[in-house]
Design goal:
By secondary structure, this protein is an alpha/beta fold. About 30% of the residues lie in helices and about 15% in strands. The longest helix has 18 residues, at about 40-60. This is GDP-fucose protein O-fucosyltransferase 1.
Length: about 220
Amino acid sequence: MIVVSLGFHLLVAALFWDVSSSSSPHVDPRGYIVFCPCMGRFGNQADQFLGALRFAKAVDRTLVLPHWVEYRRAAASSSMQIPFDTYFKVAPLLEYHRVILMQTFMDDIAGKVWPVGKRTVFCHGPRDMFESSEPNSCNAKEGNPFGPFWNAFGIDFDGSEFYGPLSYTESDRSAWRSRYPANDWPVLAFTGAPANFPVSDEDAKLTSTLCGLMSLLALHKPS
């Protein structure tokens, strides 16, 4: 099935080379996409990551590589956030599109383009499924893993932006750019992955594209 194969291929794809740079990254004037991979366990997160990567390329923004969300018995009451490059090396992705690790983005970029007090979160429409939910809000930090994910980076949101009826399909690419130009909206931060679920046929095709960039099949094993 497509859903299984996407997660599997990403799991075994060889993201084999390191990204190394002694200097701080430059600000991308075309903007950034940040999201919480808050749906399911690794397989679902990997599937939706591919969709988010394709979406970032479609709207021509740098994708901020999120930490993976894990659930372990020792921390059953809360999720754990695992850096993207704990399992995968990043450089091969740069052959497809611009990416940056979440921690690097927060350390070196966020203060310049997404300062505290001016952080808006995006969702399709209000999320008010919790008793403590604020009205007419994305309530982006309500529940687990949403709260723990954003808290890991000290992120609080100052407002909500409802992007409906826009979708993540190629047909809305121009609409996203027109409605949210990078000079006014340097960061699009989503409550969840900006990707379709179940996985779309377009995202399934991306699996082959990414695997074609890899010369070896091997996981990144941290030193």
